[in-house]
Design goal:
This protein is α+β, with helices and mostly antiparallel strands. The chain has one domain. 41% of the residues lie in helices and 29% in strands. Helix 1 packs across helix 4 (108-130) and helix 2 (13-24) packs across helix 3 (84-98). GO terms for molecular function: lyase activity. One of its GO terms (biological process) is organic phosphonate metabolic process. Keywords: Lyase. This is Phosphonate C-P lyase system protein PhnG.
């Protein structure tokens, strides 16, 4: 339902960091090379207008980003806010999951479980919001 990047960027930072530690334990420290970051950046927040479905830039969002290589494989991590540890862990996992032959396939069920938890939380929030909806056509 959700992409791996979406799941990991919306998951708690410590959970993502724990998954990244599982990956890093399989490599020597020299296998990780920082390309840029961790650093703060501003990115444009693009929104789709609901009627005409046209895109526009609603403003800028402060993010933390990291670019790195893990055993020669590029990885990128970006999260909203000042969260260097989360962005770094996301970059490590991005690189690990891009590796040829999928040597970190054992992480996929754990990420899928995080995705299910994320979907359940979103459903709970939607249900809570729906309970406050006003039906103006019944007035």
């Amino acid at each position: 339902m959700y992409s791996v990047t979406h799941i990991l960027s919306c998951s708690p930072a410590q959970v993502v960091a724990d998954l990244a530690e599982v990956v890093l334990a399989r490599y020597p420290a020299a296998a990780v090379t920082l390309i840029t970051g961790p650093r703060m950046a501003l990115v444009q927040l693009r929104v789709v207008e609901g009627v005409a479905e046209s895109q526009f830039n609603a403003g800028e969002v402060l993010v933390s980003e990291v670019r790195l290589e893990l055993a020669g494989q590029f990885g990128f991590g970006m999260v909203i806010g000042r969260a260097f540890k989360h962005a770094t862990a996301l970059a490590v996992l991005d690189a690990a999951l891009r590796m040829p032959g999928d040597p970190h396939a054992d992480l996929r069920p754990r990420i899928a479980a995080l995705g299910q938890a994320l979907a359940a939380e979103q459903e709970r929030r939607f249900a809570a919001a729906a309970a406050t909806r006003v039906a103006f056509d019944t007035f």
